[in-house]
Amino acid sequence: MADEGLAAHRREPIKSSVSNVAAHRRRKNAATVGKERRESLVRAKRLCRVGISGDTDVFLENDMMIDEEQSILEAQTSSAVEGLKSTVAYQGKGAMQKRVNALRELRRLLSRSEFPPVEASLKAGAIPILVQCLSFGSPDEQLLEAAWCLTNIAAGKPEETEALLPALPLLIAHLGERSSLSVSEQCAWALGNVAGEGEKLRNVLLSQGALLPLARMMLPNKGSTVRTAAWALSNLIKGPDPKAATELIRVDGLLDAIVRHLKKADDELTTEVAWVVVYLSALSNVATGMLVKTDVLQLLVERLATSNSLQLLIPEAAWVLSNIAAGSVEHKQLIYSSEAVPLLLRLLSTAPFDLRKEVAYVLGNLCVAPTEGDGKPNLICEHLVSLVGRGCLPGFIDLVRSADTEAARVGLQFMELVLRGMPHGEGPKLVEREDGIDAMERFQFHENEDLRNMANGLVDTYFGEDYGLDD
């Protein structure tokens, strides 16, 4: 239980350096990072329109369907479910192939549009009959088609995803060695969609034992299967309860598999695995402590060194480093003494905005020690003086000037550290030299009360009527 309490403060220390900011802010971000950070790359729930093998036998609609076409599709879907019911009840000659054909027809209809007719399939009673088609002993082709149908139903609205509850035990059961690799992967995809819906369904999956078989799917060197399993796991462990993340990192062989996959040249594979690391480091101190003892930190630094653009893995690497930097003093020292710092300083001034903001969290958290409660954090003066001396202050002040309130807050918090913590009272002069006073004064009448109070408080405290009289 101690891990749960500590995890709540992941990435928090710098955020409470100026004013009392809710400690769960960053923890909440860990749970919603899929929506905030992955939207342009991958959705938290994914529609399966091309099969596991990469081929497809269905015409894919590129544009939104007009109402008349959608109505026809819904009618066809209802008819396909009724047809499937008939074939399942049929026991005569060729019954097995009839079932497969009926499943394939339903799957085609559920894969044709970007907005599949899920509601129509549910109203027609698709779930019970699809569950029946998942029974062990069925041919792989039947299992694959049934799991594919369930995958796309799970990609629907929240209430549509919840309709899969009766299918979950069999979907989880087919993750094991008794099923073929293609069936296991399709079932993992369906479960990833269910986990992506929210905490309630994640808890159901965890209680039914989905975590261990998904973790075992990450152990072999089988790219497509590992990608799907990693994506499903990143949805399953993303909190806010850290228990699943801690349980995952303790699975035999999982940590070695993470390191092995991160070394691959396959960007899609390494990105999915990196997102598992993002959630592990965001939610579990146990996981973070185990990760930093491996080559993960060095691998992430190497990824940061490859580019200053928002390529695959660059934001993920920065996010993991910021999670580690918000941990213990030992973890901060590990990053501070690594090759990461010169890269982070360069990225703070040259990278695209979103990456600069993430890098700012890393550098800021390197300068403060963990504290109890929401008070001002203790400074790690050696780190602060070194980073300021190496030219990071202008980058933070640029964030203060931005229209992004989160970035501005991070910038203000670092300025507070400089004003309060630089030796010999030189903090105010350094801030003034970089036009930091002007950057803060733009918040004098800002609509955001929190930022307004932070900025005005710093100006009043460090640049009041007596400022400069000693000179």
UniProtKB/TrEMBL annotation:
This is Importin subunit alpha. It holds the Pfam family Arm. Transmembrane segments: none annotated. InterPro entries: Armadillo, Importin_alpha. The keyword Glycosyltransferase does not apply. Residues 1-14 have a biased composition (Basic and acidic residues). Residues 1-36 are annotated as: Disordered. Coiled coil: none annotated. ARM repeats lie at residues 295-339. Keywords: Protein transport, Repeat, Transport. Belongs to the importin alpha family. GO terms for biological process: protein transport.
